[in-house]
């Protein structure tokens, strides 16, 4: 972190803030926060409505969601590639190039989603068995997963399309999509799942198909607004000649992003396994899950700052302004860290009250308090680190988060989590301490990369210059 303090102190405040578009930053951040809020409402309503039907349905919804998150790894990777390519193209004033990338990303995500749905559907039973799904849950879980897979292409279009909107600074359209999908999903869960307002209660099927209907509506609206906003044309897929030049950059950014997401989520699964194997494993898992939900409220605005960093850094690099890209990244790093640390400080005195609200069992409340102690304390690192991740995504330098994040979780968090929990603390506090250490080291490493590596060389302009040089040679 020394490099950060030295860089900030070397500027007069008026100098390093000059030219930073604070109005644009706020205009990008608040709609994204609302979109994330809609997503949280949908997830909580699905879980709550399913729990009102039966514990089996609630468990099936949770398992289905975890499988969907794992399958979305490829969608997030395509979104990362699309974010870098579209934001940089728009920053350079190449609207047609941006449209070509939008068409390529949307077409690719539909193909990938269909293939994943077919492949997972064919081995659905084996996948659920691998996840140690109890026999009593197999019928209801297979049904929920089946409906989720039918709607997977729609979910891909909604999620990836939202990223493309933001890359082009069109944030109101995806907000409308998110609100419409949220309202339909909640209405369906309550009315067709639970039978509110006199509607027939279809139970499990009502919850499952309400989610499908909301995703289908969101996908249709996404395509409509992409067309209306001029981001896709009649023939969405670009010509073959363009694909030979443009497609390699997309996948050059997307492949490391995919590896990063996949290895990160697998690491989390291993961490859950380490926690579950402890003597207080059941209470610890419950506390970790509840604590993570509470903590996610802090990361909602942090996520918005991260995506905003990707957009503005991509725009600056597309315009060939490396200095502005670095200055914007630094300002967002500081703003997000200070603002969210202030919110975390305000939350600190109420940690026991939050634990009481989320659990009536004293052992679980203790675990929630322990989890939040370490993870709220590390918020300055976590939030500011997310912004630097966004900077690298905007620059197309996704290889740096791949290396740093993977090393953080697999070489620090998991080994220390196992060792501290079994040999030092003898409980889940060892896991929470390892999370603190790994996040502090991870963000420090990203700060070093930000100041000492030429991450701008991964930009689209640099890629196209290299391609032209090879053609001449």
Task: List descriptors.
globular, 473 residues, mainly alpha, 2 domains
How would you portray this structure in words?
The chain has 20 helices and no strands. It has 473 residues and is mainly alpha-helical. The protein folds into 2 domains: 31-238, no CATH class; 256-473, no CATH class. Helix 5 runs antiparallel to helix 6 and helix 5 (73-91) runs parallel beside helix 9 (152-167). It is globular and about 60 Å long. 48% of the residues are buried. The mean pLDDT is 84.
Question: Can you summarize this structure?
Answer:
The protein is mostly helical. It has helices at residues 2-9, 13-16, 22-53, 55-71, 73-91, 95-122, 124-130, 138-150, 152-167, 172-193, 204-228, 240-276, 281-318, 322-347, 351-358, 362-377, 379-395, 399-424, 429-452, 460-472. The protein folds into 2 domains: 31-238, no CATH class; 256-473, no CATH class.
* Helix percentage range: over 70%
Note the run of SSEs as H and E.
HHHHHHHHHHHHHHHHHHHH
- The helix count comes to 20
How far apart the termini lie comes to 43 Å
